[in-house]
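Pilot study result, target chain (299 residues):
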Amino acid sequence: MIAPRRFLPSISALLSFEAVVRLGTATAAAQELNLTQSAVSRQIKTLEEQLGVTLMIRQGRRLTPTQAGLDYVTQVRDILNRLAQASVSARTNPTGGTLNLAILPAFGMHWLAPRLRDFARDHPEVTVNLSTRLRPFTFAGSRFDAAIHFGHEDWPGVRYLPLLPETVVAVCAPDLLPAPLEDARDVRHLPLLHLETRPRGWARWLSSLGVTDEPPGGMMFDQFSTMAQAAIHGLGVALLPTFFARPYLRDGQLVLAASPTTQSIGNYYLVWPDDRDETAALASFRGWLAQQAEPATAG
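Predicted structure:
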């Protein structure tokens, strides 16, 4: 059960309320909805009694929403629109639909996006919409069906599909270091670039080489993309995921500062809420994504 029935107004009441707020009078709303004026007024009165809140006040011939009414109608319109879209999708595309996916910028741009063409070819019945979210959020009340998560299985109320671990490599501009260091530990003598979400990244990378000293500080960035641009412009050495660094290395914008790679602090996952039924669109996407992840997890 989604919620107690006493908190679920009828669609007719919500349509009447939304129309009166938009048009200003019960008469105009009744004409639009093909109802009588008294029927519209009764719907609004019933809605107010059900919620225990005054939504409209009469000012002359016009009905004006209270502040509570204005706040409520914003959410009502969103819900009615989403319900209409879901109904159209169910009628016209019962085996597909729309998947709203929250992505991490670097992973979405450099790992997921190049593969989505294959998904679109294999599943033309599904439309995938992408939006950026940097941190976990609450699925309830959001428009997202699923998300890409990095770290550990610590997102409450979701199910997980492991995709791949994050393996990082040290890179820099060719002008800063034209060839990889013979001794990777010497990277400590170069300016190091740091990422806010991986504050111990260099410490772990150096620890894998037997270095226990704290790495030197340096410029801090909030995203891989801005840190990569800083490295391209010669500001220092960056630790980038291999899937992210690969096109820059191929194009010669960046070179290896040292050859060792290490695994980062976590893994990438597809997550989706565990309290919702899985849609056809999500099932198709999850199945396809599991196949894409198999080579990465196997390697």
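One observation from the pilot: Residues 67-92 form the longest helix (26 residues). A full batch analysis is planned for the follow-on phase.
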